[in-house]
Amino acid sequence: MNDRFRRIVRGLTTRRSLVLIGHSHASSVAAAAASAGVPIEHLNFWQLGPKSLIERADGSVELIPQVRARLLAPVFSLVGGAAHHFGLFAHPRAYDFILPERQDLPLCEAAQLVPYDAIHAAMLALARPYLEIIRAVRAATQGPVFHMESPPTYADEVVPPYAPDWLTHFAQRPCISPVWLRYKLWRLHSGIVRDYCEQFDIAFTPCPAEALDARGLLIARFHADLGHANEAYGALVLRQMQELSGNESLAQRVRRAVAAR
Amino acid sequence: MQDNPYTNAPDYRRWSRAVARTASNEIDPVTSVPFQIARSDQIVSAGSCFAQHIARRLVQNGFNYLVSEPAHPLLPADIAESFGYGQYSARYGNIYTARQLLQLLRRVYARYQPRDDVWEQNGRYFDPYRPSIQENGFATRREFELDRQQHFAAVRRAFETMDVFVFTLGLTECWHSVEDGAVYPMCPGTVAGEFDPARHAFVNLSCAEVVADMRAFIEEVRAVNPKVKLVLTVSPVPLAATAENRHVLLSTVYSKSVLRVAAEEIAKSSDVVYFPAFEIVTAAFGRGRYFAQDCRAVTEEGVDHVMRVFFKHLAPGGEVMADTKPAVDPHFEHARAVVAAICDEERLDASPS
Q1: Considering only alpha carbons, which residue of chain B is nearest residue A164?
Q2: CA distance to A85, A114, A192, B141, per residue, from A111 (Å)
Q3: B336, A115: Cβ pair inside 8 Å?
Q4: What are the pLDDT digits (tens) for A77-88?
Q5: Which H or E run contains B60?
């Protein structure tokens, strides 16, 4: 994390540990908090393991009591956020789709047009297990829950460096999908998560505007790898979390919720 | 007793031998066929819903069923199916009438463009000529138009490269536009669109009209593909509803009778074979077991019988069921594995909880 973002994060204070729960995207925020000395309760499903979830026959999940007990509102979720990652790599049979809210975006030449509704249904099926976890977080939290949008994709001219063990399969730059397809998939994914959050009284929080260029793509200095943003980006998300926590009306609601526990 | 035309008639010409004394599941009304389908032949099919059974069985039995408009492999099989992929060679949905088939051919070659182009409802766009393809229509007008272009190109590819075309005649009743005669597969207002009595009219096609439409189709498709051989069938599935003011059973018998006679007329042409799926399923020897509880849907047992006879005569070597496990997209699985690897790295990076 560079000095600028360290200063930003240190400039903000919190009354108590922020509660962050999620998967891989949460790591950048946790790392930023650690660097800045910001207290954070980080519940990482990679570390909690599959036994932290109780799966029901209908596909829904419930968090185990030990996890539920740590969810003191406000809770910030970076659960999932990778259901669109299948589109990071160019498919041998090129495909594309039209995003209804951004019909101006270009289509890949000679690509098979896939109906938006079909892509939506396919991505929803991929995201479903993670949405169920977000719902379980909501159910286990007495007070506000915020879901932080997963980071956007990067521009073609600044593809992040590959991690070494990917080289065996994706050594060539052409294996990366066209930027606007990646962007549309990210937007579609965010839309699915946002709609879900609205259904269950979870505040969907868009990614920090400072991390985006004029086209809405992730600025190069925030890249970590093909699918994730780095600690500097995490610092921006951490600041969003602190601002949301510092909101007075929100703080009152939080106190009431905590007192009620 | 003097010789007469029946004296030395083969068994298949006698009901007592061909039907009454033959085990019902062995009854085989096909006596000769002018051609056979090789495993290498590219087969395209279209028609009413019964045609879906034929397509499915051809695929299952390893025939070279040409799909010129496949789902993208990223789409799971159930989603692809719900978007009309894989039902037929291209995503045209059910084609119930010969007129609808002819219209499709003329549209894909830009010889005809119906004035009723698209139905917009609540910000969604429906194709009047394949309204069931997407349950909720297309999300945008641009997608509707580009998808149609893609569809037309796929239909042209199918028509131009197929070796065999299997068409199932389903209905004589249809609805058309009074503006230019464009025929709809479904009455406007049923699946999508709005019914307007000033713009939409009912037609019950006559035998002569079905024959004329079918012959025009054959002539025009052979102009782009002279080698194609045709197999005609009549769907045994009764009408779901009739627009005539009479009992649906009467309309069903009328409609199927017209189609059966029309098929007979058309099959007199060279390289068109009539395949008696209708007879196998509806004849009395089935004693009703080839129809489901609603007396309309054809049972798998009925389809089995039809396809057994089909394979025996028209497509030898098709008796063995192939593995029908849905294919998994290797790219998708690979990408998922790599993404999982990325996320696994994050596990190492995670801060202590």
Answers
A1: B342
A2: 19, 9, 24, 19
A3: no
A4: 999 998 898 888
A5: helix B50-60
- Return d(Cα B172, Cα B48) in angstroms, integer: 11
Enumerate the β-bridge partners of residue B58. none
Whole-number mean pLDDT of chain B? 90
What is residue A52's predicted lDDT score, i.e. its pLDDT?
A: 87
The rounded distance, in Å, linking the Cα atoms of A206 and A144 is 16
Of B72, B136, B339, the CB nearest to A114: B72
Cα B43-B55-B113 angle, rounded to 5 deg: 75
So what's the pLDDT on residue A251? Answer: 44
Nearest CA in chain B to A45: B347
Q: In what order do the strands lie in the sheet with B200-204?
A: B183-184, B173-177, B200-204
Q: Nearest 5 degrees, angle CA B171-CA B177-CA B182? A: 65
> What does the pLDDT look like over A133-181, one tens digit per residue?
999 999 999 999 999 999 999 887 666 665 545 444 555 544 788 999 9
**Contact between residue A87 and residue A181 where contact means Cβ atoms under 8 Å apart:** yes
Please say if the pLDDT value at position A248 is more than 80: no
Q: Which of A40, A92, A113 sits opposite B331 (nearest CB)?
A: A92
**All residues at 6 or more sequence positions from B15 whose CB lies less than 8 Å from its CB, including other chains:** none
Parallel/antiparallel/unpaired status of strands A40-44 and A53-55: unpaired
